[in-house]
Design goal:
Helix content: 40-55%
Oligomer: single chain
Number of strands: 9
Radius of gyration: 17 Å
Order of helices and strands: HEEHEHEHEHEEHHEEHH
Structural class: alpha/beta
Distance between the termini: 21 Å
Shape: globular
Largest sheet: 5 strands, parallel
Strand content: 15-25%
Length: about 240
């Protein structure tokens, strides 16, 4: 019924020890299916504890990394709406996207990207939280917290109310808005393209019917996950197929 229910069920079904992989200092690091789903659950519950609810907009400013994939599905699991921002987007465009979408929180990869976007983030009263993937990025930043702290909070929420995540997830419907992806803004202000969970799911199912994608395959994510093609074909499709 939703993108996260599709991806999380498939991830657990195939149960791989190397469900998601990335390199740190030239060394491959694997994230297991169980860890991946657990992190999605805890981040979602952490966001809920901050007051993020169904229909709220949450922006994501980051390069491709495991936290992008995990956070995206956590946002969608609450019925909230992911608004991705390209790391190369101009300051005035970042500010326009945040303002136009009315984002309540933003996930930021690191200090470098925060410095790039800082002018766009100033004096936005509706933006409640800045959540940093890299902990050092949050130091001295007003309204900031780390992803680790958010997850710890979510883990505590899971202990208190074990059924909460499943309740949030089951409330998300196919016709609900999943994302607003803004155009590049080369011919004027960026335009917000609204896509539902059903829009994504119908594409994923059509491709798996038409292409010989197998759970024994390995996929390399190359395009930015902020781009609709990579998000659907290199992200949701691959999780659904157990790649």
């Amino acid at each position: 019924s939703s993108v996260p229910s599709l991806c999380l069920a498939s991830t657990l079904k195939y149960g791989k020890a190397d469900s998601l992989n990335h390199k740190i200092a030239g060394k491959w690091i694997s994230v297991s299916a169980e860890t991946f789903v657990e992190r999605v659950r805890h981040i979602a519950l952490g966001l809920a504890a901050l007051g993020i609810k169904q229909g709220d907009r949450v922006t994501l400013l980051s390069e491709n990394r495991p936290e992008w994939s995990i956070t995206d599905l956590a946002i969608l699991s609450l019925g909230a709406i992911n608004v991705p921002i390209y790391t190369t987007q101009a300051i005035d465009q970042i500010r326009y996207i945040l303002t136009d979408s009315g984002a309540r929180a933003i996930f930021i990869s690191n200090r470098r990207l925060y410095k790039h976007a800082r002018q766009a983030l100033e004096r936005l009263g509706f933006l409640d939280r800045l959540i940093f993937f890299d902990a050092e990025g949050s130091e001295g930043v007003e309204r900031a917290m780390t992803l680790q702290a958010l997850e710890e909070n979510g883990r505590e929420q899971a202990r208190r109310t074990p059924e909460a995540f499943a309740d949030y997830l089951s409330a998300v419907r196919p016709q609900d808005l999943a994302t607003i992806i803004y155009t590049s803004g080369t011919t004027g202000e960026p335009k917000g393209v609204m896509l539902t969970h059903s829009n994504f799911i119908s594409n994923v199912l059509a491709i798996t019917d038409g292409l010989p994608i197998s759970s024994t395959d390995v996929a390399l994510s190359v395009l930015p996950l902020s781009h609709i093609f990579e998000r659907m074909a290199g992200h949701y499709l691959m999780f659904d197929a157990g790649v």
